[in-house]
Design a protein that fits this description.
82 strands; rod-shaped; CdiA_FHA1_rpt
Length: about 800
């Protein structure tokens, strides 16, 4: 092989012109023969100094065929500047002689010293290539003597096929042009064009602490191994500290800044890549990018990891001015993974992201369709739209999903789609989205769960809170919640479930359950649904509707319904129930056709409108207050029942039954035939207007009925019975009795007037007062131990005393009647 020094000395013209001469004078056959015999070195093995430049190094061949370059004297700053017309390295390698004395090398054994280094070795060896052809680096580049930074700069490009560095603390490949200040001090590199390609046998710079690849674009088709790898792409000025500032390029922008093909891979302790060119991105196609420490890729354009593996032990950071794609790819780290798309989307469809912490931020959408995002600690996703269809998002300590739009808290637009997807954490989950669709999906928090949205669709979905914690808050704040055929369950015994649906809460065939306290607000459609709380349940609703399969259960239940309440199912509590319904507009309805039962006290307060009960109300004690109460069902308590309102209608076989006392204070009391009001002790009613009884009113002890209304309409065509006394006071009204009034220990009736066509009886005394008169009609019977009347008595019926003798009362009229026991 001809020596480079001999070739150099024999060439008086620049190398590019010599090539033309060779091409003109040598016949193809002759040229091929000479090439085969080694008489001419291929371009891939040529290193030629630029004879037109001042900084020409001396080049010769050492032992073992390695090329030896005696580099130029170092400047005061320690920079040896060397200019070449071509710089190509073959398998024998190249030695950059940085020693002033003889020195042993790996490539060529012992070599003579470089006289240019007599005053000291260089710290930076700048190799500037002025050629229209890329440099071919197919072997090792060794620094002889003191270790130094080696810069190989060829604006036309560099191809590395089996290249590497020996005794080089900092290896730099670049397509930039060196820049100097007025004092000839190196100030940096101007990169305007050129590509660096890693191919074939690849590139290994692991013996160097630092490796730079600085070019307009970089293509990796083979294995690239380094310690700390720094890649900068785009048209830039790179200063001596490595900072990049964009400048104008000399040709069209490349399609990709960094392209790692399926044949390529990158392995390093640290990997840093900066792509500055607008819209020019990174492509990793089924390749491995692996770092023992950190990976940081920052590209102005799209980052596409198509089926590739990006793995770093301590952290992975991908930053893009456009989209980040991880389709069928893997991004993993034992530390932090941070994906940030400033203006685009993050697409992890069918991909895998797994780290200690995972932070994902996208100006537009995040797509995790059929993908997996997992963090040992926290997952944080901020975006304007998140698709997790059939995907999995798992932050073992925490999951946060919110908006990337400035100060907005909720993900706008389509929001979060988690259909057939899973969002889980052993710790806390926080979701803020304008719209959240969890159809057939699962949202699972071990501790605290917070959801804020305009609409939440949980149809056939599952939402779980407090699964691994005995306490914690599950809060769902929405405008509209659809839980049809879905489930919302909180398991922590001391936890709290709060659901606020300002418009509607639909729970048709759904389940909402809290093991601790629970609170709801909105309009609840609980048709065939179940709502329960292990402790207290508070419901502040505008409307409540249900059917026979509906249920509400809790320890203490407090329901406040502003408009309409329609219960056809079961509402039950282990302690007390308080039901407040209606408003001042008097248009609301409280309707119970189902069962409402409390082990403790049941309190029902209806403001305005009607309370209709055709079902069952049962509790230890019951208090009801309503404008109008219609009972055709059963109201029962082993203790007391208290009723307050305008009208009490006990109709259609309705039953009001108390083990102790019944107290009713109403304007009007109406009972129909077949209806029952019964108490184990006393029945006490205060009528402020009218009294109409066609049913049964009975007491284990006393019945007391009183009214102070003037000229009220009062009648009894049913039965009023007491094991003790019946006391009826109608101060300013007439009482018409066509039924039965019986008090075993006595009957007292005080009224403006009394008309009897029925039966008034007692084993004890009967005391009747009619200030305007007492009329005992032909069908009327009055029976008592002693019977006393006050007022004018008009008797056409039968009056019987079981005690004798008794004097005939004054003002009596007994004409036409038979006598029994006593004559009047």
């Amino acid at each position: 092989m001809a020596k480079e020094s001999t070739l150099k000395n024999n060439i008086s013209t620049p190398n590019k012109y010599r090539k033309n001469v060779l091409h003109a004078k040598l016949a193809p056959t002759c040229f091929a023969t000479m090439l085969a015999l080694g008489m001419i070195m291929p371009a891939s093995a040529a290193i030629t100094a630029d004879t037109s430049a001042a900084n020409q190094p001396s080049i010769h061949t050492g032992a073992n065929g390695a090329t030896v370059v005696d580099i130029n004297k170092a400047s005061e700053g320690g920079v040896s500047h060397n200019v070449y017309s071509e710089f190509n390295v073959d398998a024998n390698g190249v030695i950059l002689n940085n020693s002033g004395s003889s020195v042993n090398t790996q490539l060529s054994g012992n070599i003579a010293g470089n006289a240019n280094m007599a005053d000291g070795s260089a710290t930076v060896i700048l190799n500037e290539v002025r050629s229209s052809d890329p440099s071919q680096l197919n072997g090792m580049i060794e620094v002889a003597g003191q270790s130094a930074q080696v810069i190989i700069a060829n604006p036309s490009g560099i191809t590395c096929d089996g290249c590497g560095f020996i005794n080089t603390n900092h290896a730099s490949l670049t397509t930039g042009t060196a820049t100097f200040d007025d004092n000839n001090k190196l100030t940096g590199l101007d990169v305007k064009k050129g590509q660096i390609v890693i191919t074939g046998k690849g590139m290994d710079t692991t013996s160097s602490q630092y490796t730079d690849i600085i070019a307009r674009s970089v293509k990796v088709n083979a294995q690239l191994k380094a310690n700390e790898l720094n890649i900068i792409t785009g048209s830039n000025h790179i200063d001596t500290k490595g900072a990049a500032k964009a400048i104008a390029g000399t040709d069209n922008a490349p399609t990709l800044a960094l392209d790692v093909s399926s044949l390529g891979s990158m392995y390093a302790n640290k990997i840093y890549m900066k792509g500055t060119e607008s819209g020019v991105g990174v492509n990793i196609d089924h390749a491995n990018i692996t770092a023992a420490d950190t990976i940081n890729i920052d590209a102005n354009g799209k980052i596409n990891n198509n089926g590739g593996n990006i793995t770093a032990q301590n952290s992975v950071a991908l930053k893009s001015g456009n989209d980040i794609l991880n389709n069928k790819g893997n991004i993993t780290s034992e530390g932090l993974i941070n994906l940030s798309s400033a203006n685009g989307a993050v697409d992890n469809s069918n991909g895998n992201i797994d780290g200690n912490d995972v932070y994902i931020s996208a100006k537009q959408a995040v797509n995790n369709g059929a993908g997996n995002i997992h963090a040992v600690k926290a997952v944080s996703i901020t975006t304007d739209s998140l698709n997790n269809t059939a995907g999995n998002i798992n932050g073992e300590n925490q999951v946060f999903i919110g908006s990337a739009s400035g100060t907005k808290k909720q993900i706008p637009g389509s929001g979060l789609i988690n259909e057939n997807g899973k969002i889980t954490s052993k710790g806390d989950v926080s979701i803020q989205a304008t719209n959240l669709s969890n159809k057939n999906g699962s949202i699972d928090a071990g501790s605290t769960l917070g959801i804020s949205a305009n609409t939440l669709n949980n149809q056939y979905g599952s939402i779980r809170g407090g699964n691994t914690s005995t306490s914690g808050l599950t809060s769902i704040s929405v405008k509209d919640l659809n839980n049809n055929d879905g489930s919302i369950i909180v398991k922590g015994k001391n936890s709290k479930l709060v659901i606020s649906a300002s418009n509607s809460l639909t729970n048709q065939n759904g389940t909402i359950s809290g093991a601790g306290d629970a609170a709801f607000s909105g309009t609840l459609d609980n048709t065939s649904g179940s709502v329960s709380a292990g402790n207290d349940l508070v419901m502040s609703l505008s409307d409540y509707t249900s059917d026979s399969k509906s249920s509400i259960a809790g320890n203490n239940i407090n329901m406040n319904i502003s408009d309409n309440f329609q219960n056809a199912g079961t509402i039950s509590s282990k302690d007390n129930i308080s039901l407040v319904a209606g408003n001042s507009r008097n248009i609301a309805k409280l309707e119970n056709t189902g069962n409402i039962n409390a082990a403790g006290k049941l309190t029902i307060q209806k403001q305005g409108g009607y309370m209709d009960n055709s079902g069952t109300l049962s509790a230890a004690n019951i208090t009801m207050s309503a404008t109008n109460i219609n009972n055709s069902g059963t109201i029962t308590a082993p203790g007391d029942i208290i009723v307050n309102g305008d009208t009490l209608n006990n109709i259609d076989h309705g039953k009001i039954s108390a083990g102790n006392n019944i107290s009713a204070t109403v304007y009007t009391l109406n009972t129909e035939k077949g209806s029952v009001i019964s108490a184990g002790k006393d029945v006490t009613t205060y009528i402020r207007k009218d009294f109409h009884n066609a049913g049964d009113i009975k007491a284990g002890e006393d019945v007391t009925i009183s009214s102070s209304y003037k000229n009220g309409d009062n009648d009894n065509y049913g039965s009023i019975t007491a094991n003790k006394a019946v006391n009826i006071t109608m101060n300013d009204s007439t009482l018409y009795n066509g039924g039965e009034i019986n008090g075993k220990s006595g009957v007292k009736i005080y009224s403006k007037a009394l008309s009897n066509s029925g039966n008034i009886s007692s084993v004890g005394d009967v005391n009747l007062v009619g200030r305007s008169g007492i009329t005992n009609m032909a069908t009327g019977t009055i029976t008592g131990y002693e019977v006393s009347t006050t007022g004018i008595l008009n008797n056409a019926g039968t009056i019987t005393e079981t005690a004798a003798p008794v004097k005939t009362p004054t003002n009596s009229d007994t004409s036409g009647k038979k006598k029994k026991n006593i004559s009047f």
